[in-house]
Design goal:
This protein is α+β, with helices and mostly antiparallel strands. Helices cover about 55% and strands about 10% of the residues. Strands 1-3-5-4-2 form a five-stranded antiparallel β-sheet, with helices on both faces. The chain has a three-stranded antiparallel β-sheet with strand order 8-9-10. The protein has a two-stranded antiparallel ribbon with strand order 6-7.
Amino acid sequence: MATTRLIVHHMNKGKGETITSSMKDRFDYGQNPDKTRRGELVAAYMCDPETADAEFSLAKAQYLAITGRTQKRDADVLCYQIRQSFKRGEVNAEKALKIGYDFAMRWTKGNHAFFVVSHIDRPHPHVHIYYNSTTLDCMHKFRDFHGSARAMRRLSDRICYENNLSVIENPKMKSEGQFRHYGEWLGADKPPTYQERLRAAIDTALSMQPESFDAFLMLLSGAGFEHKWGRGGVLSFRAEGQERFTRLRASTLGDGYSMESILAVIEGRAPHPTGQTRPALNSVSLIIDIQGKMRDGKGPAYQRWATVYNLKQMAAALQYLQENNLLVYDDLAAKAEEAVEHFHRAGDKLKVTETAMKRNADLKAAIADYARTRPAFNEYKARKYSNQYLSEHEADIAVYRAAQSTMRELLDSEQLPKMDELRAEWQTLSAEKKSGYRDYREAQKDMREVIAVKANIDHLLGITDKEKNKEMER
């Protein structure tokens, strides 16, 4: 099941905005590395996502030169965006990207450059499709037409049928004058909201009877929630994957979940609904120095929780040693050293690839700007560097000179590489980056786990001094 929406992007009304910068603002949001797994969930057709703003802008300039047709600056459409959202559990982010690419290709009929991004910042998979309003031959433009929403929905439903996905049976069913939103279509399959998850975590923490509010915050932190203090002493929490913090107050979370209500429960002045259990640990972590925490003023409730926590971590550490056949201490130490070295090698390799990709992207953007503004500079040169012409085309001439300077810095010779060669190089580097990130994340995970295990074993054997323990924690 998928829902679709077509969005038309015009020029920003901000002072000093250009066509390229207006599109770049939108494209940067879509290609947010935190939402696309560092660029893994991006696919493109006849353009490079990194320089799509410059390429789309160049196509519009060529359209104007070929056809001579102009429009008012604010009325001209820069590009179109389609949001396609899928039902949670039916597809993963990779499958959503593939379906979105198929949808974009059939919607544009291959006549427009586009790129697709699949986001992972929401419980339900969804993609954003950005396509140029100008066709590839720079002779025509896409115009939104009457019934385009219905046409998009029909095409989306057809692709869903082809991929054995459910479709919305009654898309025109109304609720209080508006179409039903995505959450209503999910029904019982709707995942808990961040507010619901925070309320559940608060119930779990209070059920453990923390001795103080600091102990309560420690329990919330162990459940995966970070916190911050805002203006006026307002406390806010944020779960993993959540963008904005949720304020701890009754108007946001409901009655019984304000700061005053929680303090009353901790101090024994009011009851609170409980009954939930603490989530299980998913990985090995460093054990807690209980005696040190007690000297810092932690209460008996914290000591009980930390004791159970340490027992679970030691059990996880011993299981790790057995599964990896590290029953000799020297083998464990060698494993930890090897994991650290592997992590640094993977990071260094990734930095080299990212540096090459940045050079490639900067060079493509410079070449696109150079080609777009070269006619203006040639005319300026033909007019013997007329000050009047310079004042009329100062922006284009400045872009031309900046692009020329960038190309001189990045190129070893005066011969410009072909755009097809740069795109092929980008595809190779992109594949290397994806593989490198997978290796980097796996190496980081292995390193953290084996170091935590070694630190816990050192503590168990009594061979960890303070300086060594600090190094392990780092």
